Every structure is written in C-alpha cells, then in structure tokens.
Amino acid sequence: MTQPVCRFCAASLTRVFVDLGMSPPSNAFVTPARAAEPDEFFPLRTYVCGECQLVQLPQFQTPAEIFSEYPYFSSFSSSWLAHVERYAQSVRERFSLDQASLVVELASNDGHLLKFFRDAGIEVLGIEPAANVAAVARSSGVPTLSEFFGRGLAREIVASGRRANLVVANNVLAHVPDLNDFVGGIAELLAPEGVVTFEFPHLARLIEAGEYDTIYHEHFSYFSLVCVLKILAAHELRVFDVEALPTHGGSLRVFAAKMNSQFIETGNVRRIVENERAAGFETGVAYEDFESRVKESKRAFVGFLTDAAARGKRVAGYGAPAKATTLLNYCGVGTDLVAFTADKNPYKQGKLIPGVRIPIYPPEKIFEAKPDYVVIFPWNIRDEITEQMADIRSWGGQFVIPIPEAQVLA
Fold first, then answer.
1. DSSP symbol at 34
2. Does the global pTM surpass 0.70?
C-alpha cells in the first residue's frame, strides 16, 4: 500500500492514532450460506494528520461497496426518534422555517427525521445512497434521491430552481471519503441565509471515554471542532453555534452558514475551541496515550469474559451494531465467550457478525436462553435497552457495558 495522504489537506499521513489490527467491514454480515467462506479483512489503523490534525482511516472500499445497501434503520431506536423530533421542532422555530422553505437531509436513512418537517407543511428532500433504505423512505411519503451527495448533485438541485434553507447532515460527515466534494456541495446548495447543521461523534469524547469501538471502516474521519472549523472555512462556511449532545457516546451539533451570512457567533464556539486547544488537539498532545489505554480496555473485557466462562456463567450480547464488529474482532472474542447476540433489526437476524461469526437472533432468544450476562454492544443507548430488556433480572441476569472497562450494571 502506498503512503496514505490526508483526505482534507493531502499531507502525508505518518503518525498512527491507534492500530486495531485487521478487521472485516463492520456491516458485512454473513449469511448461513456463506458461513464456510472466508471474510475480507482490512487494516483498522487510524492516523492523525500532522498538518490539519484530522484523525482518519485510509479508504479500502468505495462508498458504493459500503453504502449501496445498508443494514441500519434509524427508526428502530425510540431514543433516536425522540432526539430528532426535538431537533426538528427547535430548528423550525429558531430559523423560522415555513411552507416556503426547503429542508434537505443528507444520508436521510428511512426518512424518519424529514417526516417531522413534512408533517409541518415544509418541503423536504432526502438524499440517501442506500437503495434499500431510500425505498422505505419513499414508501412512507418522503421524497428521496438514492444518490451520493457532492458538488455534482448539488448543482443539479440548484439548476432545478431550488436552494436549501436548511441542510441536515446527522452522522454522515464521518462516512464521507471525499470531504472537500461533500462540504463544497453543501456550500453550493445553501440559500444565501441558509443553515447547515452537522452532528458527529466528538473526538474529544471518544478519547476521554476510550470509545475505540466506534472506529470502523465506514467511519473514514473522526472530528474535533478545531478541525471542522478548518474544513468548513476552506469552503466558505462559518460556524456560528455548537451544542454538546449525549448521543453516540458524546457528539457535537455544529451550526454553520455562508461566510457573509447574518448569523452571529455564540460563545459556545469559543468555549469548546478553547477546551480543545487546552487539551492539545492542535498540537497533537491529545492523542498521545490513547493506544495504550485501548490495550488496557481490551485486556479488561477479555479478562471479564474468560473469568465468566471459568465460573460456568453464560454470556450473550444485545445488539449487532458496527461497533460490535470492531470490539469483538479486536478482542478476538468468538462464540466460546459470547454465545450469540440479539438485535431488533430483521435485516440482521439470522446472520453472523463478520470475522468472529457470532450468530444474531431476535431479542426473544435472550429470554429463551436466560444468560447470566448480557453485553450491551450499542452502549450509547444503554438506558433504552436496559428498560426494554429489564425482565432479564427475573432469572438473575445482569447487563454488562464493555468499554472502557467491563462494567456489570447494578
């Protein structure tokens, strides 16, 4: 492999942030018919750019290979639906969106967010490259283009006589291999006083909480605010507000507009930038001990599982998110330590987690098997899961959070 270069500034990448070894694509779930066939593995080695400080993975697969069919449907999470409903109401009021407005969502998934704008009489357009997910959105009455977004598509929309008053980019920026084309397209699509909001997992929180399992091949980049400011400014976009969110283990919601727009910068931007600078996100100090902490976390999780097995305890998982593929493959955990996992998504049921080949069943399987421990792989929605699965306590079952160290919940 040739020396990788930064996807934003094109500088050579030489500094490793964390090396998680070889791992299969996170959502390459294996059907029983393919169980005897080998998986495809790629390096899961992240770098820090020495010039712009963007943390990133080299690209091994094209976006079409990863996202043309997608197993994640946002509507399966009740807590996420409540989150986006609050967001929709807030931005409608804050930016006076009405029947004359256009809201465009990038990576709109099954249309769950845009429905809240549509039901308020606002014109919406979803852009979702995964054909299976886009079809679900269209069937529920949300106009959706099944295409990848960039400058080309932005120009087509503008040529049709439409510009966006609001562009929504929730948890998509990390999935974009060509950042400059994507952000440049947003700048072209926005109306003169239009607003774009980004939500993305905050790199500062990932490091602080040891969330290494959120690193996987479809997440090409990992963002601090100081880095996002540089990327947006390069495309004549200016951040005027930012909010810290609890979602996905700790995220930022960034509000941006064109450089000459009327929006006044809030103190939130300066506060988070100053915090990041103090932590060393511009100098590189922030990244120094992360890999050693990741190794400690791995030892703790494997140690918990091997001890449970030695004591004759039965362990299952809940959920088959992308982070489970990273965690289980990096830790080398197979069915000898975690017998199975259960997931609400019918698309995943009956398949196997790639690499480790742990089977995925419907949630009812947990109540049939009655394991002693249930590892919550989507720990970012632990409260939702512990409430839904509270009956495991009837046989003495306990929930376990796997990172940053294995923790049995009371």
1. G
2. yes
